[in-house]
Amino acid sequence: MINHTLKRKLESRILPYVQMPAQYVGGERNIVVKDHTGLRGRLAIGFPDAYTIGMSHHGLQVLYSLINRREDWCAERVFTPWPDMEAKLREHGVPLYTLETFTPLSEFDVIGLSLQYEISSPNVLTMIDLGGIALHAEDRTMADPLLVAGGPCCQNPEPMADYFDVMITGDGEPALPEICDAWVELRDAARGADGSFASGAEGRRQRSDALAKIAASLEFAYVPRFYTPEYVDDRIAAISRTRDDVPETIAPSVISDLDGIPLPTAPIVPYVKCVHDRIAIEIMRGCPHLCRFCQSTVIKRPLRIREVDTIVDAALESYRNTGYNEISVLSLSSSDYPHFEPLIRRLHDVFRPLGVNITVPSLRVNDQLRSLPELIGSDRRRSLTLAPEVARDDMREQIRKKIKNSDLIDGCRAAFQNGFESVKLYFMCGLPGERQVDLDGIVDLAEAIATVGKEVNGRNARVTASVSNFVPKAHTPYQWNGMQSREYFQWAHQYLYSRRQIRSVNIKCHDIETSLLEGVLSRGDRRTGKAIRLAWERGARMDGWTEHLDPQRWWTAIADAGLDVDAIVHQKYELLHKLPWDHVNVKFGRAYLEKEQTRANIQLADMAGAV
Q: How far apart are the first and last CA of the chain?
């Protein structure tokens, strides 16, 4: 059921005049195109970023496959168009459409968007507006699609709360089908005798009543319109329900049996080069470690695994359906998978004869690292990526990342001996209690690894120390901490650059303005939504891409929205304070986080005088 009229208009008037038009035409290998006639419901799965990013996201392929397995539903894809495409769509009055059937977004029953990165928030507004849907949730009627958000940014749903009908935390696989079915049933019940929906105030009231039923029946469904924030001294003091039939707090959606959830074995193969051109297989969800800085560790609990046979069978079927020459095993810490060595050996046995490479992007630094390079090495893989996060043992105790420099250096030595030529290390700058010696340690450790390369191969190895600016995220033990100032990060970055002595070591520090904006957007309350809209109205587009980000536009919008950046980002919260995201629950809950924050403060006091 392809909309040929819209497709022909695109082909004649729009696509010849935009960059990389192949990202807007659909038709890729393994897409699913269904006739909408007779379907119970239609879902548009959206990713608020460019096609090349969205098509690299494993979660999108998972949900697309999951819904399209059903005979009564279709799932189609939509991404944020680049500014040149957006301008052409607006010029010719063409709405944003899905790639499978060129159907405008406004004609779908449900639109699900994955919120992966706070800086991309304006892209959401671009997609909603281009789709011909009212920006604010409370302005919609039953005639409009249900807008659902998921993804890590929903851990603090408040900054985007005004724009979504429902927001979900936790696993999408069980939650999305339930919401889709519930909404279609409620929508059918609201139709008039002629099949139409009420408009105006009556239509908005009907929608509100329908959403209340979803909120009351699905414990993971947060419907923001039924929760009103209250402020004292410019900070959140309470979030009160406007109806007694909706829950006080929201539970995460959780899969109990990950192995029972089918993997996507016919992933879509894009026409254009994407960030990740490979098969991705999720082997484990969650992480056995409890690092205090890590939001993903908290929100993906409990730890669940897939069996080796499940993974190998899915990888082989995916290869037959795509022809990709690389397979990546995914998890927060792949080498912590309990059957890691048997799995990798099985994958190599199956895929080496086929010329297919196996990659493991997330390795744990422990004594096992000494044997991993031999296991994961290949003719094409020449770089090892590791995340020590910090470089001193006492700071590692503080962040609860229990690794040793000796394991890291021995692992890198083994990598160089097995043909690896370079190492990339991920560090953080600005952690609670950070000292100058911690910055010294970053450079010293990177240079020590470069020297190990010289011991093995006769020349210093290429080592990149990628240093991110720490943002205290919701639902971590550090959520009460303030973020370091712009001036601190400027000094710390310059200090790191000045300490480098070996030319083959590269220090790369993340952009400070981007990190500070991430702090505002990840730690803000519902008033932050006004700043996002102002930035969007003033031209914020694709700000996750450095060349498109205009920080001053954001800072002006934030000021015009009346937000206090110091209060949101830099001032710490006390344990008794209300947090903007307290009504969203995680496994273990706030009591565990409070205990960890208290322990961290005790350790920080002990570290204060250490050298």
A: 68
pLDDT band at 610 (very low <50, low <70, confident <90, very high): low
Q: Return d(Cα 483, Cα 486) in angstroms, integer.
A: 9
The distance from CA 42 to its chain's CA centroid, rounded to whole angstroms, is 24
One-letter amino acid of 269: V
Backbone torsions φ then ψ of 418, nearest 5 degrees: -105, 20
Check residue 250 and report its DSSP letter. B
Task: List, in sequence order, the alpha helices (H) in 381-461.
Answer: 393-399, 405-417, 436-457
For residues 273 and 258, what is the distance between their CA atoms, to the nearest angstrom?
A: 30
Evaluated on CA atoms 581, 583, 587, 589, the torsion sign reads positive
State the average pLDDT over residues 293-317: 93
Residue 275 sits at the vertex; the CA angle it makes with 269 and 280, to the nearest 5 degrees, is 60
Q: What does the pLDDT look like over 402-411, one tens digit per residue?
A: 888 888 898 8
| Pairing, β 279-282 against β 284-285 | unpaired
Q: Is 63 helix (H, G, I), strand (E, B) or coil?
A: helix
No. of helices (H) and no. of strands (E), the chain: 20, 17
Question: What DSSP character marks residue 411?
Answer: H
CB 222 within 8 A of CB 168: yes
Which H helix or E strand runs over 215? helix 200-217
Burial class, 564, CB count within 10 angstroms (exposed 0-12 / middle 13-18 / buried 19+) = middle
* pLDDT tens profile 517-531: 999 999 999 999 999
Q: What is the pTM of this model?
A: 0.95
Single-letter amino acid, residue 570? H
Residue 44: helix, strand or coil by DSSP?
strand
Backbone torsions φ then ψ of 568, nearest 5 degrees = -75, -45
Q: Where are the beta strands (DSSP E) in 250-369?
A: 279-282, 284-285, 304-305, 326-330, 357-359
Q: Look at phi and psi of residue 465 and say left if phi exceeds 0, alpha if psi is from -120 to 50, else beta.
A: beta
Single out the residue of 51, 65, 60, 43 nearest to residue 19, CA to CA: 51
Nearest to 303 by CA among 320, 289, 319, 286: 286
DSSP state at residue 285? E
Structure tokens at 174: 């069980």
CA angle 254, 257, 263 (to 5 degrees): 100
Instruction: Provide the CA 560 distance to its chain's centre, in angstroms.
Output: 28
To which residue do tokens 């192995």 refer? 259
286 Rama class: left (phi>0) / alpha (psi -120 to 50) / beta: left
Torsional sign, CA 5, 8, 12, 14: positive
Query: CB under 8 Å to 566, separation ≥6 — which residues?
Result: none
State the Cα torsion 553-557-558-562 to the nearest 10°: 150
**Cβ(211)–Cβ(223) below 8 Å:** yes
H/E element holding 507? strand 505-509
Instruction: Determine the Cα–Cα distance for residues 267 and 28; give it in Å rounded to an integer.
Output: 10
Report the 10 Å Cβ neighbour count for 285: 20
Q: Are 429 and 391 in contact (CB under 8 A)?
A: no
As a dihedral over the C-alpha atoms of residue 28, residue 30, residue 33, residue 34, rounded to 10 degrees, the angle is 180
